[in-house]
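Run log, item B.
One chain of 273 residues. Sequence copied directly from the ordering sheet:
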Amino acid sequence: MTMPGTADKGAVIVSGATFGIGREIAEYLAGAGWPVVGFGLEQAQVSSIGVASVEALNDDASRRGLPLSFMAADVTSEAGVAGVVEAALAAGGGRILGVVNNAAIGPLGTILDTPPELFEQILRVNLTGPYLLCRAALPHMAAAGGGRIVNVGSGAGWGKPDMAAYATSKGGLIAFSAALALDHFADGIAVNTVIPGGGGIAAGMSLGRVGGDMDKLRAKAVGNVAGRYTTGGDLGGAIAFLLSDAAEAISGTIIDVGCFAHQGSSTPLPKRS
């Protein structure tokens, strides 16, 4: 599937793109025709098993003919983010169409289990990271007449047990999205949130929580209405829609991908006869 008129509208930046659903999102969007710059770190982060080689990722994208390049950069580094934005401007002919804030870390724990330095690290990656990336990209998007920001949230943003710091960061991201949508409405910049759901999602963060044990990860997972576990491609499809002309009037909304309204329920419906 190629979205019509994508390549001439600017590049799309995807954070946390070197592993897991972030990589799948980046590849999906590139396959749909957008020039994509994906970035992240090559080494595993706290509570994650995700490791990657940017060189190998770029070789693979080139072999597949995708308009996709990867960079090693830290979303919490203002200088690193600035470098990513410059690369995206070059890839998009001087324009940035979209920013996808996907990078996140998610150690489990109550506040009593979470030392202050870890609490601050989670907030810095999951909340300050999107702030830095949006702050760097927004002036370019506004100058070009508009753009799209899509934040990858979590059902934990409404609170879940044993996720005190992670839930706090994702709840903040929901408020951040709404504030951005209001502040930049007149700039033609749409801001929306997508939330992966259903459990059992194979990502560095989710696998890291269970020591890499896929069976344990999926033991109680509901999955989605398609009868399988949600993938980065599912997120990519929703994000591609939000980047497309078909969604030009949509801003300030939340789309659940794979579960129920904002993951308010984790209990599957009875099987239909």
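Observations after the first pass:
- DSSP finds eight helices and seven strands in the chain.
- The radius of gyration is 18 Å.
Flagged for discussion on Thursday.
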